[in-house]
Automatic annotation (TrEMBL):
It is an enzyme of class 3 (hydrolase). Its EC number is 3.2.1.51. SMART domains: Alpha_L_fucos (SM00812). The record marks C296 as: May be important for catalysis. One of its GO terms (cellular component) is azurophil granule lumen. Residues 30-367 form the Glycoside hydrolase family 29 N-terminal domain. Residues 1-30 form the signal peptide. Keywords: Glycoprotein, Glycosidase, Hydrolase, Signal. This is Alpha-L-fucosidase.
Length: 469
């Protein structure tokens, strides 16, 4: 960091080597026989823990020093200092005194109203099954008292609290959600990373003295069951020792049997290596993929961090959010919905409303989302905005439709009825519905005549189809 803050990682010689070697030792008790080797071929063969595919829906939380300016993007520091984008330069000129440095925002990151229990209750109400908190973004500021970040962390600066620990305890004590952490491998302005970068990554000072020991400590201390890596900095996997770390994570870490990881572990690994694929931010291919994937996306269409300058039209509507969830799950993905709390730890009303709304929807339609498989068709060929999921063991196919037909009849081109066995129900309604077969393939379902207030939900509905082909 600049501005007089010397990261603890900025050390030399024996001190660096001693700390790094100590941190890289596997934890006690005694190790098991290694099942996975530090190669992509071995690591990619690991079976993804079943809970992740069953969960379908999680919440991403981008929170850090960037939440203080809360302007433009969580990349504020980079856009202001490195790219010198004019709107960021003007924002600082118009709102802060001359000489104000990005590091000065840290003392203003108060988390004054942060209440981990309150957050946990909101997340539980959303129907999510896991959360992922940014333990450290590209700015390098850690939300726990990292031994390797000196005073550039939430215990020494700003909140003077271990945010990661408080949220971990609340999630595990108050909810049935899995606790996960995001971690940026690189840091924009860390002097050791910049020195390594200038050597075209022949030097490895930053990962050896900062990133690796910090990441090992993070896993050992907080036991995240999702480890969401990001920020490869253009460096290859041998620079980061990604495969070595993941081999330890899968073989010897305290979460070795349940942890899931994504694909952002080095330059060139995205959508190619790792536990599940993210491929790109806001990735929604609209078709079935052969590998488990996740659509990480934002309720604010333009930023991951909180923005004071966001207008109401910048946020997804609940209808758009339900559509994202349904499309994603139908194509075999998980949806990771991001919110950005304010600098003082408040989940703003618009974020809370969307989370509670999707939770209300899932209370009715969760049967068609959680623990489902994909079906032979992802969406319907006759009626737009109809998406399918299935539970083969129960002989169930779910048709989730996002528009209630004005005719009161829903035409489905994909399901083929089984005479004497097929039954159709509307989730949240209960009574079997009448249907007829189409001449070649498909069925027409007669929906119940309900008033707006009698509908089981407001923003999308699901039919449970028994014994269809």
């Amino acid at each position: 960091m600049t501005g007089g803050r010397r990261p603890r990682g900025d050390m030399r010689g024996a001190e660096v080597l001693g700390l790094a070697l100590l941190a890289l030792l596997p934890p006690c008790p005694a190790r098991r026989a290694a099942r996975f080797q530090p190669t992509w071929q071995s690591l990619d063969a690991r079976e993804l823990p079943a809970w992740f595919d069953q969960a379908k829906f999680g919440i991403f939380i981008h929170w850090g020093v960037f939440s203080v300016p809360s302007f433009g993007s969580e990349w504020f520091w980079w856009y202001w200092q490195k790219e010198k984008i004019q709107k960021y330069v003007n924002f600082m000129k118009n709102n802060y005194p001359s000489g104000f440095k990005y590091e000065d925002f840290a003392s203003l990151f108060t988390a004054k109203f942060f209440n981990a229990s309150q957050w946990a209750d909101i997340f539980q109400a959303s129907g999510a099954k896991y959360i992922v908190l940014t333990s450290k973004h590209h700015e390098g500021f850690t939300l726990w008292g990292s031994e390797y970040s000196w005073n550039w962390n939430a215990v020494d600066e700003g909140p003077k609290r271990d945010i990661v620990k408080e949220l971990e305890v609340a999630i595990r004590n108050r909810t049935d959600l899995r606790f996960g952490l995001y971690y940026s491998l690189f840091e924009w302005f860390h002097p050791l990373f910049l020195e390594d970068e200038s050597s075209t990554f022949h030097k490895r000072q930053f990962p050896v003295s900062k990133m690796l020991p910090e990441l090992y400590a993070l896993v050992n201390k907080y036991r995240p069951e999702v480890l969401w890596s990001d920020g490869d900095g253009g460096a290859p996997d041998d620079y980061w020792n990604s495969t070595g770390f993941l081999a330890w994570l899968y073989n010897d870490s305290p979460v070795r049997d349940t942890v899931v990881t994504n694909d952002r572990w080095a330059a060139g690994s995205i959508c190619k290596h790792g536990g599940y694929y993210t491929c790109a931010d806001r990735y929604n291919p609209g078709h079935l993929l052969p590998h488990k994937w996740e659509n990480c996306m934002t309720l604010d269409k333009f930023s991951w961090g909180y923005r004071r300058d966001a207008g109401i039209g910048d946020y997804l509507t609940i209808e758009e959010l339900v559509k994202q969830l349904v499309e994603t799950v139908s194509c075999g993905g998980n949806l990771l919905v991001n919110i950005g709390p304010t600098l003082d730890g408040i989940i703003s009303t618009i974020f809370e409303e969307r989370l509670r709304q999707i939770g209300t929807w899932l209370k009715v339609n969760g049967e068609a989302i959680y623990e489902t498989d994909t079906w032979r068709s992802q969406n319907d060929t006759i009626t737009p905005d109809v998406w399918y999921t299935s539970k083969p063991k129960e002989k169930l196919v779910y048709a989730i439709f996002l528009k209630w037909p004005t005719s009161g009849k829903l035409s489905l081109g994909q399901p083929r009825a089984t005479l004497g066995a097929t039954e159709v129900k509307l989730l949240g309604h209960g009574q079997p519905l009448k249907w007829i077969s189409l001449e070649h393939s498909g069925i027409v379902v007669e929906l119940p005549q309900l008033t707006v207030h009698e509908l089981p939900c407001k923003w999308g509905w699901a039919l449970a189809l028994t014994s269809v082909m």
